[in-house]
Design goal:
alpha+beta, 6-stranded antiparallel sheet, 5 helices, globular
Length: 139
């Protein structure tokens, strides 16, 4: 996977910097964030950087619960989830693409849940992110 586009940046990216880095994926980013906020009632969006070496990511939350992180890359972005056991079970029974189901089955498990990272380059990828976000919220 590509490195975070804002590694080395001390300040969170501006809208213009984000759009420039994402390129055509900027439209997908904007639509996905707007849709998730509206459809899933996400009420928090904050930029975070744990270190200058890690870059910046946008954390989307519902109430105080972290739902997903979006990490900008050159020409795309990474959507990262930590799914609990119930959400993983529901995802396995869903109509998600077989490649995503295989990714979830093989994903690393932590005490907090199963880590799932999806590279978003096209609208089909964004739809997978919408589905997983809904599954996470409902489970």
């Amino acid at each position: 996977m590509l490195a975070n586009a804002f590694v080395g940046h001390e300040k969170q990216p501006t809208k213009k910097e984000l759009s420039s880095v994402l390129g055509q994926a900027s439209v997908l980013w904007d639509e996905l964030v707007a849709d998730l906020k509206s459809d899933l009632e996400l009420d928090g969006a904050e930029w975070n950087s744990y270190s200058v070496k890690a870059g910046w990511s946008l954390r989307l939350k519902r109430k105080k619960r972290n739902i997903l992180y979006l990490g900008p890359r050159a020409g795309c972005f990474l959507a990262c989830f930590v799914l609990g056991a119930k959400a993983v079970a529901v995802a396995r029974k869903s109509q998600l693409p077989s490649g995503i189901l295989k990714m979830i089955a093989n994903a690393k498990r932590y005490a907090e849940g199963t880590a799932v990272r999806i590279e978003v380059r096209k609208s089909e990828d964004a739809e997978v992110v919408r589905t997983l976000a809904r599954i996470k919220i409902e489970n």
